[in-house]
Amino acid sequence: MSRTNFQELLEAGVHFGHLKRKWNPKMAPYIFMEKNGIHIIDLHKTVVKIDEAAAAVKQIAKSGRKILFVATKKQAKDIVAERIKAINMPYVTERWPGGMLTNFPTIRKAVKKMNSIDKMMTDGTFDTLSKREKLQIQRQRSKLEKNLGSIANLNRLPAALFVVDVQKEYIAVREANRLNIPVIAMVDTCCDPTPIDFVIPANDDASKSIALIVDIMAKAIQEGLEERKAEKDKEPAAAEKEEGVKTRARKAKKAADVVEEPEDEDEAEEVEEVEKPTATFADDEIDEE
């Protein structure tokens, strides 16, 4: 079943593109028509592309990897921060720090610096500092929190990027392409879809359009996380069941060995004595004949 439909996209204004004079010819396959000098996006193709992108993010989330959401434009930043924070995925909504992907170790050092400041505040070290030093550290902490607080749990490079406006976030897209990280993006009629792996032709300026598509992606990720959790819960139960079967098999084998073997030497001698007279009796009969 499709994750959205034509009517939902139409009501959210996903079909509105840019002015005809601002269009990118490479977006021609996704344009339905032109009306009043504005290009109209083909929503039937948008539905298909949303399903493809949702399937991709679900699989990534199910594998336990992270998807980094990038949306620094005014209309999108609050929407992305609210939706993505709820599913515990990293996001960038303030400013894309240049080299965040290509120079990832340096970014991790800054995050560790923020964590060390937090540790200072909890273990009492912060209280021993002077008033001026406290103020400087607090300002540094606030700056780091603003720019990097949302990626504090990103311990390694993300498995994919989700970008709202590829023209505004061209640096992020370029870095991802350089590192062969797949890019999923909302692409308007004025943008170049060539560097994007999963193109979602959509209006990237309207808050309703952004909210609808981001919400669909968030739900797909949540489904992937739930399936991963369910599989992890099944693994211990399956292992325990298999161990129980092996234990029962060992007990059955041991019981069979006990029945087959005589308990002691006296029992073995009794068996021989019973069998021996029978053989002698048969030999006497043969002699008489």
Walk me through what this model shows.
There is one protein chain. With 289 residues, the chain is α/β, with parallel strands linked by helices. 57% of the residues lie in helices and 11% in strands. It has helices at residues 6-12, 43-62, 74-86, 104-123, 131-148, 170-178, 207-260, 265-288; strands at residues 16-19, 31-35, 38-41, 67-70, 91-92, 160-163, 183-187, 198-201. The strands form two sheets. It has a five-stranded parallel beta sheet with strand order 5-4-6-7-8, with helices on both faces. It has a three-stranded antiparallel beta sheet with strand order 1-3-2, with no helix packed on it. Helix 3 (74-86) links the parallel strand 4 and strand 5. The longest helix has 54 residues, at 207-260.
C-alpha Rg (nearest Å): 35 Å
End-to-end Cα distance: 93 Å
Order of helices and strands: HEEEHEHEHHEHEEHH
Strand order of the largest sheet: 5-4-6-7-8
Q: What form results from the Cα inertia axes?
A: flat
**Beta-strand percentage range:** 5-15%
Find the count of extended strands (DSSP E, 2+ residues): 8
Q: What's the total helix number? A: 8
Q: What about the largest sheet? A: 5 strands, parallel
Q: Kindly report the average pLDDT value.
A: 84
**Structural class by SSE content:** alpha/beta
From the structure provided, what is the oligomeric state, counting identical versus distinct chains?
single chain
Q: What portion of residues is helical? A: 55-70%
Low-pLDDT runs: 270-289
